[in-house]
Specification:
Blueprint: E1 7-12, H1 21-33, E2 37-42, H2 44-50, E3 61-64, H3 79-94, E4 98-102, E5 117-122, H4 134-145, E6 149-152, H5 167-171, E7 191-195, H6 216-237, E8 243-248, H7 252-259, E9 267-271, H8 276-279, E10 285-289, H9 292-298, E11 304-308, H10 314-326, E12 330-333, H11 339-347, H12 360-373
Parallel strand pairs: 1-2, 1-4, 2-3, 4-5, 5-6, 7-8, 7-10, 8-9, 10-11, 11-12
């Protein structure tokens, strides 16, 4: 008699961008490749992205969770309305053995009365001892401790001053970035990929993202300006020899406006979709907003990289600065006036490191998942 398949549910935070959907999807792919039955529940940008066209060679059942479009601060799900009323019954319905909470930091205690083990994917930026972090981080870390396993999406901060329990470290099953696998190892071509994040469903209050007063409506405007200027400078820099592929979260009206910047033969503007991965590893240059998901995706691509951050967005600025310091061909444009210089620098011919492994992020996913399975 065949043993029952392990069943895994991935509950992935779907806004304001795709920072938790992309690494969650990579882990879901690793689970599928190890013979696990995969279910994914998400919402907003996450659902639109995962239901878009494109193939990543994985079978899963997708669930769309209903959320209010406007929200004050916390972008994730409600522990009771979504957790107790929707996700818990879903765990029981599909008889889930593992539940991965990607960015849903409030959900850890949900599985405590079930046979399902919980795994939290989290951004360790919440552990950094800043004024902004003090109050929410203590609360969130206590909730993280209620999970069975933990998967930080980057290296844990040195000293980790906001961890107040030794149980946190004992539950960490991996530490790194997670990306989808690629078989595309062709030579670099003249394609430039421009992206601007997974979404613009920003909160009404930006206090959890910014130590300064920031206007989320200005963030939408900035996203458009950076995208527009990235396209213009890329077209100029490659002197008519390149094709610019834009994956934009700005909506059809603004995307149509961007499309008018050049003829279709040189510029193609599309909504954010899985098709993005078709071009990522052979593009000569990739330009994008410095979100967690994007940085994970491009750490080991061979083309040049330019990132920008929303003004006053502490997390994105920190990610972009660290990325520039750790990657020789990455440039952090700190303003739109600096964008042209960064694009020109990243576009210069350079030696490609033959040891670059574009599948390091996926190997991380497989290793972390194996660690968890050995403990279940």
């Amino acid at each position: 008699m065949n043993a029952r398949k392990i069943v895994a549910l991935f509950v992935l935070r779907g806004r304001p961008g795709l920072g938790h959907v992309i690494p969650g999807l990579a882990l879901a792919k690793a689970a599928y490749d190890q013979g696990i039955e995969v279910h994914i529940a998400t919402y907003s940008n996450g659902f639109h992205f995962l239901s878009s066209q494109g193939s990543i060679d994985i079978e899963y059942k997708l669930y769309n969770l209903d959320v209010q479009k406007k929200y004050l601060d916390w972008p994730g799900l409600c522990p009771y309305d979504h957790g107790v009323r929707i996700i818990l019954p879903l765990i029981e319905e599909i008889n889930a053995d593992l539940c991965f909470f990607g960015g849903e930091y409030l959900m850890g205690p949900l599985t405590s009365g079930t046979q399902c083990k919980s795994v939290a994917l989290f951004n360790p930026e919440i552990m950094i001892n800043t004024e902004k972090n003090k109050t929410p981080s203590t609360y969130l870390l206590n909730l993280l401790e209620s999970n069975d396993f933990l998967l930080p999406l980057d290296a844990l901060p040195q000293g980790r001053p906001l961890i107040n329990s030794t149980n946190i470290a004992s539950k960490v099953m991996g530490c790194g970035y997670y990306t989808l696998p690629t078989c595309n190892t062709d030579n670099l071509n003249e394609t430039v990929v421009v992206a601007n994040g997974g979404g613009i469903e920003f909160p009404e209050n930006t206090a959890s993202y910014s130590s300064k007063v920031a206007d989320p409506y200005n963030w939408v405007s900035e996203t458009y300006t950076y995208t527009r200027d990235s396209i213009k400078h890329a077209l100029e820099c490659f002197n008519g020899n390149s094709t610019v592929k834009v994956f934009s979260c700005l909506g059809s009206d603004l995307n149509n406006t961007l499309q008018q910047l050049a003829e279709p033969e040189r510029l193609e503007v599309k909504p954010v979709s899985l098709e993005y991965y078709r071009y990522l590893h052979t593009a000569s240059l990739v330009i994008s907003r410095a979100g967690v998901g994007f940085i994970s995706d491009v750490k080991n691509i061979r083309g040049g990289k330019v990132v920008w951050a929303l003004s006053g967005h502490d997390e994105q600025s920190l990610i972009a600065s660290n990325f520039e310091e750790s990657c020789a061909d990455a440039y952090f444009s700190k303003s739109t006036s600096d964008l042209k210089r960064c694009i020109e620098s990243a576009s210069r011919p350079r030696a490609i490191d033959s040891d670059t492994n574009p599948n390091t992020g996926y190997q991380n996913a497989m290793k972390s998942l194996s660690c968890i399975l050995n403990r279940v």
